[in-house]
Design brief:
The structure is a single chain. This protein has 1287 residues and is mainly beta. The protein has six helices and 108 strands. The strands form 35 sheets. Strands 7, 8, 9, 10, 11 and 12 form a six-stranded mixed sheet that branches. A six-stranded antiparallel sheet has the order 18-15-30-29-24-25, with no helix packed on it. The protein is flat. The protein starts with 15 loop residues before the first strand and ends with a strand.
């Protein structure tokens, strides 16, 4: 962005009537008025654009010289470059209001900096797009430093010519400044072709894009928009337009659209006659890029509302990096453009889809309605601007007219509601609409994602899948934050999803919300983190390459490891690997796609059959052309699959037209009629004819070597006329004296000045074109050129007189009279005939000026001198003073009528006094001095006075203290003040009268040594005997503060720590301290500050100064327990049976740990039961882990593992003997072989009776809600312990 603002509304707020402007537009005393003889123009464009194709087709007769042989004219684009690099000297006239604007602030250096920045800005557009380079004229005369009036836009040429001359520039513009003005600029369309109109442009702001816009009008471009500010343009860009010549600027990059270049190109060629030869580089080293028309389609079909991309297949002999762009073609007011244009791009794929240029969408960029459209697809070899300037290389273009048919089919659009935020790796189902009747069977799509808001799409979500309206994708494992799209006001996520077909290079696509305000996708951290996912998730392998092994991928949820689900499937030549984890109702994961190259199937060539040409159609079938111009005749051969479509061209007669190297292109040789015939060469005998009429080339413009000329009576001047173009058939002219008799005019244009006056000379083309040009001649008289005086410097005494005389040259000047004028000064009087009379002392400037209006003059400087002083007398010649006294000397100058009786006072010798400028003497010190008064008129007269100064004695002394208390080591400065203040010698001598508690320096500094008292005296040294005394008392120095090496201390039971105290100041008399245990019994404290930690708790220790000052300091001590550092567990055996009890031995270290208690835990509470003190009971078979954890703050733990097995059978715990037969059926215990009549009792291990029954000799069945693990079976006097294995 340049430092000068580039955004503006060019031309808004001006009303029009059928007669032109309804009123002038005025701002800040400056009015921009349309010229009275110009067509109705607004910003350089004709308002009344016709409704037919005539305006659109103004420059459409000349077609591309790069057309490919045999290609129909329907696909050939207009010519917009001839390869000539042109350099224009641009004069930017800075009007006074622009110069006074806040931005430039009347600073010439800022104007020149603006010029340089403007030059760079314009060249970035014009060099790249048009091959035109501007060099801004750096001439300070183009800056209007004072206000000169209001300008119409056709005043520019006159203003610039008057400033620097017509030959110093090639194109010009006036830069004005109106705060808040609606009308931003006006320009003359195509004005650069004409000498008198090359500067007919004005802008009302310093916005560079506005200046570039108005210059575009001078080069012949109209407004391309459909409508803007109430105006109708060329209708080649929708709404208010998008390119530099429009009223809308949605892009960061400015550019000239193809349709604007189409209008500007012929104007640049027609203005070549005005450019110096060195400014036209007509021998380009580059060749034009070529579009491979064989690869382009005859028609592109698109479903309505569907975005699409057309690839342009182009090559260039010199470079690989080309620029691509497009413009909707064939548009006019009856068929306005609906597709916006875009800046040139390096990507050969031109996208037709939604774009944003700010907070809102670019007009129509997402509207693809049903209809037939033609697009001008273009490629250029434009170099980077600096390189193009260095090589003097203009861009060359090739173009192709593509036909696009938008049909009434279901749009290809993403229909899923894409959320503004997803997590990394989150899975989503992407859905889209598509028309199965439009897409061919087997149609495929690809899904990709951008992490830089669409600059690139580097993440492959799905490389290939059926175009069936739905697929699953995983968000990439990459954060995509929000970013500011405009000064931290607008924000969008960096992620965008793009869905595109991959059936061929012509793609249909859609993109998720890419608005600059709240658009895009933000990708945040995922609740599931993966390790080992492939960084490159899309691989391409050769057809016979082995499949790489799948990587080992792990996942974590809340730092807990989980096993991701893995799947691998192959569909055709694509293998898809997926890792996923389900969490919180969402699926997260990643994919890898491995694609094998398809095996090549050899093609069996078919035997071609010859197809003869049946018809040839020539377009146009009849045409007219001007001598020297080219004509392109397009031939369409039918059928399109004819074997040999080569044509042979014939011209009758042969001298009227000449066939160029390009098929169907002819150059007009001379006036006449010719018949062009195209014949098929395949022997079919088919041909077609076109009748061509060649007309003479008329003169289009006449330029004179002068349009304004001033002559002196008797002078002569030859006018010359240049007729353009250079190849006009008849360039002869006739000269006419239109008005005035001040000159004579010869038939060959020689003007002879006869007398004072004016005349108008006209030159007219003789070819009947009606073209003419005029020159206005002004004849002026011969003026005085110089004046000399008999004196240029003169000195006079008051009362004297002198006569000045003037001589005017040349001697034949018409009027040699002069006018005398007193320019400055009032020391003289001046008569009308040059007599000077001296009145008073001073200077004067006299001027003699020619009376003929030539402005020639001469000057004489006059100096009048005064009357001098002859003697001086003083009121005293001898004077005695006391130091501090004053006396005024006065001087009397004679004679009384001397011009200047003032004197200057000087101290000739001595420093005992000071002397003011008005003669006042001030006595400073004892001594003598000599004073002199001198006349100031230069006469040298003077008078003197001798002065003697005596001293002033001290009368009293006062001290800054008469009583003073000090601390040992302190110092104090006694000061003595002597009165009066103007006493000559105020010095004193210091004496220690009594006492030895202090020392006393010669300058009154007291230093306290020890406790005691002393008396100090100050005595005046001037002999007056005046003195003063001070009594001093010295006291001891106490402790002021104590600091400890710790004020908070944590200790472990058994640790020790030594506190140390530092007392301040260091020179305190007694620096000892007393240690005290203020509170708490967790520590012991020694007399020298050693702390011994005894038990857990807190204590407060204090150190107090021993000097009685009451100063102290404290330390708070916290004693903490000693924590467990390790635990080790020991098992006697690592396998036990169900029902066994066992104890785990634990060793806790260190042995002096404060708390040895452990908390016991088991991993499987169903297998083991904790009984206390490290003892467990085995309940159920399996493997279990026992954990012992310290119950202090260390939380140390140890583990051991144990295996529990099923016992081999029932074990009799209480008594021995034959046991009953017992079995278990689900929750039923079946007991057999209990003798009849005996009681069977069943209880738990605590002895609680669960069931009892008397046996009748049969099996007893006991059912439990839940089968216990251990039972006691009582049969008679015997008891059995039953261990039941659990399922």
């Amino acid at each position: 962005m340049n430092s000068f603002s580039r955004f503006s509304l060019f031309c808004v707020g001006v009303a029009f009537t059928s007669l032109g402007f309804s009123s002038a537009v005025t701002a800040q005393n400056r009015t921009i008025t349309p010229p009275s003889q110009q067509p109705r123009c607004f910003c350089g464009v004709n308002v009344s654009t016709p409704n037919d194709d005539s305006a659109e087709q103004r420059f459409s007769t000349s077609h591309s010289v790069f057309a490919v042989r045999g290609v129909s004219d329907a696909t050939t684009a207009p010519t917009i470059s001839d390869g000539v690099f042109r350099e224009y000297r641009l004069a930017v006239y800075m009007a006074n209001e622009g110069f006074r604007s806040e931005q430039l602030n009347q600073d010439v250096s800022k104007v020149k900096a603006f010029w340089k920045e403007l030059e760079t800005f314009l060249n970035n557009i014009y060099v790249r797009d048009l091959g035109v380079r501007f060099t801004i004229v750096q001439d300070e005369r183009l800056i209007e430093k004072s206000y000169k009036g209001s300008y119409a836009y056709d005043a520019g040429t006159k203003l610039i010519n008057a400033a620097i001359g017509s030959d110093a520039y090639d194109i010009g513009i006036v830069v004005n400044y109106i705060e808040g003005g609606a009308l931003q600029g006006l320009a003359s369309p195509g004005g650069v072709k004409y000498h008198e109109r090359k500067g007919w442009a004005i802008v009302n702001s310093q916005e560079m894009i506005t200046i570039g816009h108005e210059l575009g009008h001078l080069f012949g471009a109209d407004h391309p928009f459909v409508g803007g500010a109430g105006l109708v343009g060329r209708c080649t860009e929708p709404k208010s337009g998008q390119s530099m010549m429009s009223y809308g600027y949605p892009y960061k990059e400015d550019f000239i659209s193809l349709e604007s270049l189409r209008m500007m190109h012929p104007v640049t060629m027609e203005s070549d006659y005005k450019l110096p030869a060195a400014a036209k580089h007509t021998a380009p080293t580059n060749t034009a890029p070529r579009i491979d028309r064989a690869k382009m389609r005859a028609e592109y079909r698109v479903p309505k509302g569907t975005f699409f991309t057309i690839p342009v297949y182009a090559t260039d002999a010199e470079q690989t990096s080309l620029l691509y762009t497009f413009n909707q073609f064939g548009c006019h007011s009856g068929n306005p453009a609906t597709f916006p244009v875009f800046p040139p791009q390096r990507d050969a794929k031109l996208s037709f889809g939604r774009r944003y240029g700010g907070a809102s969408m670019i007009a129509n960029s997402d509207e693809i309605p049903v209809g037939n459209y033609r697009f001008w697809l273009s490629v250029s070899d434009a170099l980077p601007v600096e390189e193009a300037i260095a090589k003097k290389q203009a861009p060359l273009y090739d173009g192709y007219i593509a036909n696009v048919k938008v049909v009434n089919a279901t749009p290809f659009k993403i229909t899923s509601n894409i959320a503004p935020q997803y997590a990394m790796g989150q899975k989503l189902t992407l859905k889209w609409s598509m028309d199965k009747t439009f897409f061919k069977a087997g149609s495929k799509v690809r899904v990709v994602m951008s992490d830089d808001f669409g600059a690139t799409f580097s993440h492959v979500l799905v490389p290939s899948t059926a175009n069936d309206g739905e697929c699953e994708v995983y968000i990439p494992q990459k954060l995509m934050e929000k970013f500011s799209t405009y000064f931290n006001i607008w924000f969008a996520g960096k992620g965008l999803i793009r869905l595109e077909t991959i059936d061929d290079d012509f793609q249909y696509y859609d993109i998720s919300n890419n608005a600059l305000v709240d658009g895009g996708i933000e990708v945040v951290k995922s609740p599931v983190t993966f390790e080992g996912l492939p960084t490159n998730n899309y691989l391409k392998l050769a057809v016979d390459a082995p499949l790489p092994p799948a990587p080992q991928v792990t996942a974590k949820v809340n730092n807990a490891t989980v096993e991701p689900t893995f799947s691998e499937k192959t569909e055709g030549n694509l293998t898809i690997r997926t890792w996923s984890v389900q969490q919180g109702g969402e699926v997260y994961g990643g994919q890898q796609f491995i694609e094998r190259e398809a095996a090549e199937t050899p093609e069996i060539p078919e035997t071609p059959k010859e197809v003869k040409v049946q018809q040839i159609t020539l377009t146009p079938s009849a045409s007219s052309v001007v001598v020297g111009e080219s004509l392109q005749i397009a031939a369409k051969v039918m059928p399109e699959n004819a074997t040999n479509t080569t044509l042979k061209w014939k011209i009758t007669p042969e001298d009227i037209l000449k066939l160029t190297a390009t098929a169907g292109q002819f150059t007009a040789q001379q006036v006449g009629e010719a018949l062009v015939r195209a014949e098929a060469v395949d022997g079919s005998g088919v041909s077609a004819e076109c009748k061509v009429v060649v007309k003479p080339r008329l003169v289009q413009s006449l330029s004179l070597n002068a349009t304004q000329k001033e002559l002196i009576v008797g002078d002569a001047f030859s006018l010359t006329a240049t007729a353009m173009p250079e190849n006009a058939t008849n360039r002869n002219v006739v000269w006419k004296l239109v008005s005035g008799d001040a000159i004579t005019l010869s038939s060959d244009g020689v003007v002879q000045a006869k007398k004072v006056g004016e005349a108008l000379v006209r030159v007219e083309a003789l070819d009947g074109s009606g073209v003419l040009a005029e020159c206005r001649v002004v004849v002026k008289p011969r003026l005085v050129q110089s004046i000399s005086l008999n004196a240029t410097q003169k000195e006079l005494i008051v009362g004297e007189a002198f006569s000045l005389t003037a001589t005017a040259m040349p001697e034949n000047a018409t009027n040699r009279n002069v006018v005398w004028k007193l320019v400055s000064g009032d020391a003289i009087t001046l008569s009308s005939d040059g007599v000077i009379q001296a009145k008073k002392m001073g200077e004067a400037l006299v001027r003699a000026k020619a009376a003929d209006g030539s402005g020639v003059s001469a000057e004489c400087r006059v100096v009048v001198k005064p009357r001098l002083v002859q003697s001086l007398s003083l009121n005293a010649t001898q004077k005695a003073l006391i130091v501090g006294d004053a006396f005024s000397l006065t001087a009397t100058a004679m004679p009384e009528n001397a011009t200047n009786r003032n004197v200057v006072w000087k101290l000739v010798s001595g420093d005992a006094i000071t002397l003011s400028s008005d003669g006042v003497i001030q006595a400073k010190q004892v001594g003598e001095a000599l004073v002199r008064a001198e006349a100031v008129d230069g006469s040298g007269v003077s008078a003197e006075c001798k002065v003697v100064v005596k001293p002033r004695l001290v009368q009293s002394l006062s001290l800054n203290a008469t009583q003073k208390e000090l601390i040992i080591g302190d110092a104090f400065l006694l000061t003595a003040t002597a009165m009066p203040e103007n006493a000559t010698n105020q010095s004193v001598v210091w004496k220690l009268v009594s006492g030895d508690a202090i020392t006393l320096s010669a300058d009154g500094v007291i230093q306290a040594k020890k406790v005691g008292e002393a008396l100090v005296r100050a005595e005046a040294v001037d002999g007056s005997g005046v003195s003063a005394e001070c009594k001093v008392v010295v006291k001891p120095r106490l402790v002021q503060s104590i600091s400890l090496n710790a004020t908070q201390k944590e200790l472990i039971v058994g640790d020790a720590f030594t506190l140390t105290a530092t007392l301040s100041p260091e020179n305190a008399t007694n620096r000892n301290v007393v240690w005290k245990l203020v509170s708490g019994d967790a520590v012991a404290l020694s007399a020298d500050g050693v702390i011994q930690a005894k038990k857990v708790g807190e204590a407060l220790v204090r150190a107090e100064a021993a000097d009685g000052s009451g100063v102290s300091a404290e330390c708070r001590v916290v004693v903490k327990p000693r924590l467990v550092q390790s635990i080790s567990l020991k098992l006697e055996k690592d396998t036990v049976a169900v029902g066994d009890r066992f104890t785990v031995l634990a060793e806790v270290l260190p042995k002096n740990a404060t708390n040895h208690s452990l908390q016991w835990m088991v991993s499987e509470s169903l297998l083991l039961k904790y009984l206390g003190d490290g003892t467990f009971e085995a309940l159920k078979p399996g493997n279990a882990t026992i954990v012992a954890q310290a119950q202090d703050a260390s939380r140390r733990r140890a583990i051991c593992k144990i295996e529990i097995v099923v016992p081999s059978g029932l074990r009799d715990v209480v008594a021995k003997g034959d046991a009953p037969h017992i079995r278990v059926e689900v929750n039923t215990l079946v007991v057999e072989q209990v003798p009849s009549g005996q009681w069977l009792r069943v209880s738990d291990l605590q002895g609680r009776l669960l069931h009892q029954a008397r046996s009748n000799g049969e099996a007893l069945r006991i059912t439990f809600p839940v089968m216990p693990r251990v039972l006691l079976i009582h049969v008679g006097s015997r008891t059995y312990k039953l261990l039941l294995a659990q399922p």
